[in-house]
Request: fold
Amino acid sequence: CQFPLCADGTKFSSRLMKEKLLVLLACPSCGGDILLAYASKYENKEIIDAVLTCKKCSREYKVVRGVPRFADLSKIEDEKAETAENFGWQWTHFTQEDEKYNEQFLGWLQPVRPEFFAGKIVLEGGCGKGRHTRLAAEWGAKEVVGIDLSAAVETAFAATRDLPNAHIVQADIFKLPLKKSFDYAFSVGVLHHTPDPKKAFVSLASKVKKGGAISAWVYGAENNEWITNYVSPMRESFTSRLSQPALYQLSKLPALGVFLATKLLYKPLNKGAKPIAEKLFYNDYLFYISRFGWREQHNIVFDHLVAPTAFYISKNEFEDWWKEIGAEETQIIWHNQNSWCGFGELEK
Reply:
């Protein structure tokens, strides 16, 4: 195996975060190769605390608690920092697992199936608590890099550190510290929470090699007018400004209403009286989430109230994203009548 060199010119051993990660990293400022300057803490032959350096411009980046840090929240734009803070709290508190996550994940990635990951170098744009990073790794990806701007990287690292092909990096999706080395990139529920969703999508696609593929799932503008007209103004002016612990408690009230409606109305009617169920408000989505328990439904409600920024993307706008990156064989799929799944392959 050929390893990169450390900053002092010595051969780089297997004692790095996970050894192949360094090969995929690039300086977000100049694009130069990233080298290991020195490490101060190891656990089980894995670097926990260290300093990385750019071979080209000599900028330094830290590895803290096993995660390379290429973003300093104290120096980024307020809008990004606020979003990162809110979602970081969420994913360090809603850490539950559910066997239905596999099915849910594939619903967002459709038409991609688990076997598609086999042997690929994969990039996840916005990994949250790492549950999708882990699934991609378990489905046979050669390497998976999950990036996130928030403190959720702590949870994601803990959730994936036992997997030899999974890596977590703290970074800004607009300034990715990565080479154009990926066979496949995906982003689920993240792009619409950035200041410029299309720009974030293009940035993610820029790290995919020719002939590679990309998937994205975003909130749809269609059929969500009730959210943009009534929920979003409240979220922007009130709920996203609350402390996360306060919102956690407050969100239990609407979550209880959703939980009771899905369990006592939407689920039984869809199973026993489908013609009536089809006339219910927001039926496809509320029936879909009826399969989840209280903890996950509370998480869903909290998620919709905590974000300082949220865009709802129309089909026409979403289609333009794929044209922008020159994707071929593009598939745009209407998911639960409230969101868009997209998949496309880049020109070879």
In short: The two ends are 28 Å apart (CA to CA). Residues 144 and 178 are 12 Å apart (CA to CA).
